[in-house]
Amino acid sequence: MLQQGQQFPLTIKRLGINGEGVGYFKKQVVFVPGALPGEEVVVQATNVYPTYAEGKIVHIRKRSPHRVKPRCPVYDRCGGCQLQHLDYNAQLEAKRDIVMQALERHSRLNIEALDIRPTIGMDDPWHYRNKSQFQTGVKKGRVIAGLYSMNSHELIDIDRCFIQHDATNRVTTVVKTILQDLRIPIYHERKKTGVVRTIVARVGFFTGDVQLVVVTATKELPRKELFVAEVKRRLPEVKSIAQNINGQKTSLIFGDETIVLAGEPYIQEVLGDLSFELSARAFFQLNPIQTVKLYDEVKKAAALTGQERIVDAYCGVGTIGLWLAREAKEVRGMDIIQEAIDDARQNAERHGFTNVTYAVGKAETLLPKWVKEGWKPDVIVVDPPRTGCDNALLKTILQVKPKTVVYVSCNPSSLARDIDTLAKQYRVEYIQPFDLFPHTAHVESVAKLKLK
C-alpha cells in the first residue's frame, strides 16, 4: 500500500477524464496531473485513498514526444486549462480515447463494433471563448482579476487568457484599471467587506458587440456615474454595461437582480443564419465557431426530410430546435427554466418560425401527454446537463419509441450510462466527439441512435 509522501516510478498509460495522467503502482491506480501517456515519471504520493492515489511529478525520466511548452505563463497555477502541455493533435486523439474509456467503464456495449469517429477540432484552437468571468481581489494594493488556483484560495491574476477572445481580455484589463483609479472597493471574501466581486465580459464573435457586467455584493456601487463614463471613454466598443447584485455566500457568479447601467440591455450574436439577443444572464454556447459544427452534426444525425416531428428536450433558449426547424415539420421544446423558455419563444418569433412551440416543464411529463393527444415525435434531441438524462426521461423514450434519438453530450460518463439504458431498443449508429474547449479535458459528443 502506498504511503503519503512516498516517491515511486510510474509509467503513464492514458489520460483520465480530468486530463490527468493515469498509471498503476502495484495494481493501485494513481492520478498524476500534468503527466502524459507513454511517459515514465517519478511521482510523490500527495493523497492516498483506499481505492486510488493522487501524486505529483517529481521528475520526468522519459518524456512524451507530444509534450509541448504551454503558451500561458500561469498555466500550471490557474487551473482553467488542463492540456496546454499536450500537442493539439494529440489532444484530439486523447479526447476520443476518453469517450471510449467511458463506454468501457459505464456501458455493456461492444466497443470494437462501435463507430467512434475522430474528434472534430479547431483550425485555430486559441482565443475561442466568448465570455470570461474573473473574480476580483487586491494584491499588494493593486486590483487583480482572474481565477482561483486549483484547490486553494489563491487568486491568480490573469492579464491575458489565451483561450479567451481578445476583446474580453481587453475589457477585463481596462476595467481593473478603472476600479483602481476610482478606488471602488473590491469585495473581500473572508471579511465580507467591499463591493465588486466579479468582472464578466462577453463578445459577439460574429457581430463584435461587447457586454460588460460587474457583479457586486451590494446594490450601492460607489462612483457609479464616473465608472460608467470611464468605461464609455476607454472602451467605446462596449454596447451594454450592467450591474448584477449577488450578496449571497455562494459559488454562483450571478444573483437574481440585474440593472442596466448604460447602453443596450443585450448584445447581438449570430450563429449560422440565426441571430440571438443576449442579456446579461442569458446562457449561450461559449465557443460559437465549434457550436456551428456541432449543431450541423445534430442536423445531419436527425436526417430531416421536412416531414419530421421533433422534440428538443432540455431546449434552453431554443438554439438546437431553431437550427432544425427549417427542415422539420414541427419542433416542440421544453425546459424547466421559465426565463429560458421566454427567450426561446422570443427567438422563434423573431425568426418568423411558425412550426415551433415551447413549454415549461419536464420532457418526461409533457411527452406522454402529447402522445396521448395523438402527437408522436419521430426524432428526440437531448442535450442534458453533465449529470445526464433524467431516468424518467430515458424510460419515457423507451415507451414512446421515436425512430431516432440524437444525444448531445458534455460528459462521456453520463453519455455511456444513458445509451447503455437505451440500448435495449436502440442501436448506436455512431458517436462523433467534438472539441468545444481546446486545452481543457472537456469533450462533447453527438451520438445517433436508431430504433432497432
From TrEMBL:
Q: Which GO terms describe its biological process?
A: rRNA base methylation
PROSITE patterns recorded: SAM_MT_RNA_M5U, TRAM, TRMA_1, TRMA_2
Q: Keyword Ribonucleoprotein: yes or no?
A: no
Show the InterPro entries listed in the entry: MeTrfase_TrmA_AS, MeTrfase_TrmA_CS, NA-bd_OB-fold, SAM-dependent_MTases_sf, TRAM_dom, U5_MeTrfase_fam
Q: Is this entry keyworded Iron-sulfur? A: yes
* Domain TRAM residue range list: 1-59
Show the SUPFAM superfamilies listed in the entry. Answer: Nucleic acid-binding proteins (SSF50249), S-adenosyl-L-methionine-dependent methyltransferases (SSF53335)
What keywords is this UniProt entry annotated with?
Answer: 4Fe-4S, Iron, Iron-sulfur, Metal-binding, Methyltransferase, S-adenosyl-L-methionine, Transferase
The record's comment on protein family reads: Belongs to the class I-like SAM-binding methyltransferase superfamily. RNA M5U methyltransferase family.
Q: What is the protein's name according to its record?
A: tRNA (Uracil-5-)-methyltransferase/23S rRNA (Uracil1939-C5)-methyltransferase
